Amino acid sequence: MSQPLHIVILAAGEGTRMKSNLPKVLHRIGGRPMLVHLLDTAGELDPAAIHVVIGSGAEEVKAACAGREVQWVLQEERKGTGHAVMQAMPNIPDEAVVLVLLGDHPLIPAEVLKEVVSHKAAPLSILTMELDKPKGYGRIERDRTGRISSIIEDKDATPAQWKIREVNTGIIMAQAEVLRAWLGALDCDNLKQEYYLTDIFAMAHSQGKEIRSVLAPDPRDLQGANDRRQLAALERRHRHQTARKLMKRGVQLMDPERIDVRGKLKTGSDVVIDINVVLEGKNRLGDGVVLGPGVILKDCDLAAGTHVHPYSVLEGVRTTGACDIGPFARVRPGTELAEGTRIGNFVEVKNSTLGAGSKASHLSYIGDTRVGERVNIGAGTITCNYDGVNKHATEIDDGAFIGSGTQLVAPVRVGKDATIGAGSTISKDAPDGELTVSRSRQSTVKGWKRPRKNPPSSESEGNT
Ligand code: UD1
Ligand code: CA
Fold first, then answer.
1. Which DSSP letter does residue 166 get?
2. Which tens digits make up the pLDDT trace of 151-192?
3. Which residues span the domain enclosing 201?
4. How far does residue 9's CA lie from ligand 1's centre (Å)?
5. Atom 37 (ligand 1): residue with closest C-alpha?
6. Whose CA is nearest to atom 1 of ligand 1?
């Protein structure tokens, strides 16, 4: 019998303890909403469908997951985990197997879930974990033969049951047909007056149905986030998980405790990432890319051999060959740098392309500019691209040399192999191959004397 896998993610909670206007499952870990993490992990199991039960902030949750293949299920009233799963059941066929995940436990590794799913021949399965401090969790009760006989919620437990260290992670799998029957028989006769999904275990046990359990290898991957403190703990755990994955891929991290990946990261071989680097959005690092300490990248695509020196901030940058950037460079969206280019300290580049071998090594602003190959841009050069209303383009052709302290008033073009004298303000096109200077001539005033300080007047002295 083929058993299509239907995943149900419970995400209707408000998350009151977050003290936030944001629905709980939209709080971010590693820059992405908790629910998005879970959708990605769920997707790795090749399910027939993913059903997400939403309630509080439903529209906002849907919008945050736009473009994903999700069956949204509205739980109008929050009446417990059993009730939440019940809402999804009408869309699930009897021959399916249902895997339930909790929206606020986003870091569960796909391999652990795959292990649970491997038991789908059994009517009911559960992922448990052992905790030194099991408070707050449903305790796993086992009969004399070691089979799970029931799950007791923390609030309903007796002091003896509180001591049980094996708890419910919240991840439960059941065959749809029996699950439907068990859910139909739930009541809310408990302290929270909720329909507990966990009550199906006592039903299965009394019916003599087989219950399988998988013990999670590392409970830290199963932590949930109910408040800001736990959210920060998850962020730390996520950092740990990410660092481990990167190192497994061959990335050298100078300190796995000091890297933040807030989004997606692709890496080639022999990438080196120094301490306190933050990678936001979608970044790709080619073979041998080196990121110095304190580098911040957002949505960048860096070609093999690119070296970003300390404390540089790059957003929307593409390098098409090995180049050197920083230290202390700021490179903004729309910038493309070819092989052998160099962007030095205190240089800002925006929406510009630099051809192979071109350099702006110190203290410059280059905006809306097309720079050819082998151009040297002297220290303190500024493209004046904004007239207060509109932006204008600058073109600097191959082999040009721009003297230090030059202002290029756009729209303007500097010709091929042209030289611009230092300190020039260039507002008309400079021709190919010639020297163009626009500063006033230097002159010397012969015999000029520096003014001296006036001597104190004798009248005012001692005359008070
Ligand atoms: C639940 C389990 C407990 C387990 C723990 C793991 C039950 C009864 N208890 O307890 O055994 O150890 O998770 O963290 O299942 N939700 C809805 N609709 C509802 C109620 C809850 O969507 O009506 C969602 C919540 O948004 C949350 C999840 O289900 O994501 C779990 O609900 P919560 O109330 O936090 O359950 P716990 O008391 O933590
Ligand atoms: Ca919870």
1. E
2. 999 999 999 999 999 999 999 999 999 999 999 999 999 988
3. 5-222
4. 11
5. 137
6. 170
Active site residues: 362
Tens digits of residue pLDDT in 403-417: 999 999 999 999 999
Identify whether residues 30 and 172 lie together within a single domain.
yes
CATH number of domain containing 402 = 2.160.10.10
Q: How far is Cα 85 from Cα 74, in angstroms, rounded to an integer?
A: 11
Q: What is the 3-state secondary structure (H, E, C) of 333-378?
A: CCEEECCCCEEEECCEEECCEECCCCEEEECCEEECEEECCCCEEC
- The reported pTM is 0.86
* Domains in the chain, number: 2
For the Cβ of 53 lying below 6 angstroms from any atom of ligand 1, the answer is: yes
CA 220 to ligand 2 center in whole angstroms = 15
Instruction: Please check whether residues 328 and 406 belong to one and the same domain.
Output: yes
* pLDDT tens-digit map of 75-96: 999 999 999 999 999 999 999 9
Measured between alpha carbons, how far is 416 from 117 in angstroms, rounded to an integer? Answer: 66
Q: Report the separation in Å between the CA atom of 48 and the middle of ligand 1, taken as the mean of its atom positions.
A: 24
Report whether 301 contacts 320 (CB < 8 A).
no
Q: Are residues 307 and 333 in the same domain?
A: yes
| Residue 53: strand pairing partners | 10, 73
